[in-house]
Amino acid sequence: MSSMLQDSQLADEHEVVWLEDPEDLDYVRQALDKVPTRKGKPRYSRAGRLVGYTNLRPGAASDPDSGLFARRAFFLLPHDRDEQPHGPYSVGAPGEAVDPRTIEPGKVGAKTPRSQKGRSTEIAPAGR
After folding, report:
1. Residue 10: what are its φ and ψ, rounded to 5°?
2. What is the dihedral of CA 117, 4, 123, 85, to 10 degrees?
3. pLDDT (0 to 100) of residue 4
4. What is the pLDDT of residue 11?
5. pTM of the model
6. Most exposed of 15, 102, 113, 118 (fewest Cβ within 10 Å)?
7. Phi, psi at residue 22, to the nearest 5°?
8. Strand pairing of 28-35 and 69-76?
């Protein structure tokens, strides 16, 4: 699914679960994954590490074709700023990255000066 999410895609979210303290992270990548359950830690198959995920409300419907639920995963890759502060994202951030402090259930989150680190232009909230 697209990495550029809209709030309307997240209407069934009930809570955000962090596996790492979001205060310690400048940004997280987010993706909408199709998984077999509404809640609980989803299976993670990307490089890097899962740092959080969303749980859906009890009545959330699954996709009628696949039977899977669309849930957000928050993750970081090995070349992201937290592990490589002088690497490719020492300034700027990946397109799907947002400041984890701006993430709420049903809200995409926003790019902020902290997540973009050093970018001089004003950053608009994502998903709005």
Report:
1. -115, 20
2. 0
3. 78
4. 95
5. 0.86
6. 118
7. -65, -20
8. antiparallel
51 vs 79: CA distance, rounded Å: 15
Q: Quick one: tokens of 81?
A: 């700023």
Instruction: State the Cα–Cα distance between residues 21 and 102, nearest whole angstrom.
Output: 13
Write out the DSSP string of 1-29: --SS--GGGGTTEEEEEESS-GGG-S-EE
Amino acid at residue number 51: V
Mean pLDDT, 10 residues at a time, over the chain (128 residues)? 75 97 95 96 93 97 96 96 90 92 94 77 48
Say if CB 27 and CB 97 are below 8 A apart.
yes
Task: Tell me if 51 sits within 8 A of 20, measured CB to CB.
Answer: yes
pLDDT at site 21: 96
